[in-house]
Amino acid sequence: MTNANLIYQIDEAIGAHGMWKMRLRAAMRTGKSDISAHEAGCDGNCKFGQWLNSTALSAEAKADVPYKVVKRVHADFHRSAGHVMSSALGGRQREAEERLEGEFIPASEKLVRALMKWKSELQKGIRRAA
C-alpha cells in the first residue's frame, strides 16, 4: 500500500470517528442506538479497525511506531465509546455525560492527534521520495 493510500485511509478514519460524538449524544438523548454498547466498544467493528487489522497493511507498516500507537489509541477510543453507550442505553444520562466529557472526548482527541502524526510522517516520506 502506498503512502498516498495510507493517508487516504487516515483521512477517512478521522472523519468517521468524528461522527461518534454525535452518535453518542443521540443515544444519550433518546436512550436508543442502532448499535449496542458492546459493538461500540469493539475496535474491530468499524471500517478503520477492520483495515488496521487487515492484510492491506504491510508487515513493515505494522511494525512502525505510528501504527502501534494508532492501534492502541483506537482501541481506547472504542472502549470509551462503549462505556458511554452502555450508560446511555441503560438510562444513566448523567453518567453517560460524565463519561463522554471525562473519558470519550479526551480519547477522541488523542486518536485524532495520533492519526494526524501518522499522516504527517507519511507525507514527509512522500516529499522525500519526490
Give me some keywords for this one.
130 residues; mainly alpha; Four Helix Bundle (Hemerythrin (Met), subunit A); 81% helix; Chemoreceptor_zinc-bind_dom; CZB domain-containing protein
The fraction of residues assigned to DSSP E strands is under 5%
The CATH topology assignment is Four Helix Bundle (Hemerythrin (Met), subunit A)
Q: Could you tell me the radius of gyration in angstroms?
A: 16 Å
Give the C-level CATH assignment: Mainly Alpha
Shape: elongated
Second-tier CATH architecture:
Up-down Bundle
Overview of the molecule:
The chain is mostly helical. The chain has a single domain, classed as Up-down Bundle (Four Helix Bundle (Hemerythrin (Met), subunit A)), CATH 1.20.120. Helices cover 81% and strands 0% of the residues. The chain has seven helices and no strands. It is elongated, with a radius of gyration of 16 Å. The chain starts with a helix and ends with a helix. The model has no long low-confidence stretch (mean pLDDT 92).
Give the helices and strands, then pairings.
Blueprint: H1 3-18, H2 20-30, H3 37-41, H4 47-52, H5 59-63, H6 65-89, H7 93-129
Helix pairs in contact: 1-7, 2-6, 2-7, 6-7
In a nutshell, what does this entry contain?
The protein is mostly helical.
